[in-house]
Amino acid sequence: MLTKPKLQGELKQSLTLGAAILLVVSSIIGSGIYKKVAPMSAELLSPTLVLICWIIAGIITLFGALSNAEVAGMLADAGGEYVYFKRIYGRFMAFIYGWSVFTVIKSATVASIAYVFSQSFNSIIPLPHLSSAIEQINFLGIFKPFENIGVKILTILLIVGLTFLNTRGLRGVSFLSKSITKLVFGGLAIIVLSGLFLSKGSFANITTNSAAYIPRHWYDFDLIKAMFGAMLAAFWAYEGWNSIGFIGGEIKSPKRNIPLALAGGIAIVITVYLLVNFTYMYVLPIDHLIDVYKTQNGIAAVAVVGQFASSIGLFLLTLLVLMTVLGCTNSTILMPPRIYYAMAKDKLFFPKAANIHPTYNTPNHALWIQAIWASVLVLSGSFDQLTDMLVFAAFFFYGATALGVFVMRVREPNLERGYKVWGYPIVPGFFILFCFALVVITFYTNPREAFLGIALMLTGIPFYIYWNRKGQ
Q1: Confidence bin at 173 (pLDDT 50/70/90)
Q2: Which of 16, 115, 184, 198 is most buried as measured by Cβ atoms within 10 A of its Cβ?
């Protein structure tokens, strides 16, 4: 008797706690650890303030993760915050979150991380440019799609290639993330040890401010604004910590393991970031890092290692950057399509995104929809423009998730909680206040990116009206 071919697969719980921690780490550690110290230096003009920003951003990220972990421990399923928001705030808020992830937050993350891969490749093999006249063509006075065209084309090819790999199954991409993460930790350890013990760096570089630095009181609004502007860069380096919730339906014992993976993974990342960025500031004076920022394709880590390594060492570092960014891009591509899958099942997204491949058990259509839009974003803007835009949008929803801790404790106090946030109510309350402050101040420091982020988020309203009516 002939059996009917399987037309629809299903998401399977196959990831262990160890694999989940590695996915958290690999989703976070990417381009930011090599690049973001330069724009932070240009913003603050003080190495001490830069390091303080990294510490503050790490602590606040940990507060957000601890708050997120309580909600995840109650409502773990494929789709992460989309599932949480639907339970806490209803369909519309859940949709706006999912649409924002698609249009701004995670698609821009994919575009931005992959962009740094191509910038690093460009430092080994220069990629082609168009004429200056063509590169300066712009749309709406903002977007220059032909600028740095060789880097952008390679970025799009990388997105397409890794998306194809992700359509072939979860086990293979998990193995890739694990292998690359181990290689990255080894490479970063070499940078720290050689920078601290083999370079001609000095602790004086840590305490010497830029020639342009102006002393200000801690309550000075210009300093506060500069600190928040710098923290946008630091938060980009920490971005991705919540992605593990998107694949909650594919993690073993998710109500126990998601909170553990979040807390453990972020603690590891904070330690690594402090060690590496301290090394950068120890080796290179801050004015040199500011000069790196002014170079379009400059990467701070390459400039730092160039102070004490041979040309072979620089080549190996560039390969390390390439591998790190490759792993982070891969992990970032993997997780968000589970949101689009959950939305499509609720008839609030493109219908084909609800399909699961019958053989590989992956949301292939959702993966390709993400790849197309991420490629459009690559053409639309520069790396820093994309990252500032997505961090602004992300923190609005991070705050909403933390607020959900309070809502659920009042509304459903007897619901089983695999984990209760440490320091309640201070920790989630502080995180909510910080998210609000970050969103408000971003309007002052980066108004263009803030309004672009809001505009893309609001484009979802007509889609919601159409899909919601059609699904009823």
Answers
A1: low
A2: 115
